[in-house]
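Comment thread on ticket #2218

A.B. wrote:
> Attaching the input chain for the structure job we discussed in standup.
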Amino acid sequence: MMMYPYIKLGPRDGVLIISIFIMLVLTLIFKWSVWEFSFSVIAVIISFLAGNMKPNKKNVLAFLKK
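C.D. wrote:
> Ran it. Output below, let me know if you need it in another format.
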């Protein structure tokens, strides 16, 4: 049962939210600056987006067909 069905969060979104929450906790524990927190969150988001990228299999094996 979904509490907020209009949000439509999936498991990948949950992992991203948890990782950003961990960065916030690390910021509070180790007293990082706002810049360090921002850079770490940006790095997590970039790695999340890079993990979603799928290679085009047609172009990867194009050199073998020639």
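A.B. wrote:
> Thanks. Noting for the ticket: The helical segments are 11-30, 34-52, 57-60, 62-65.
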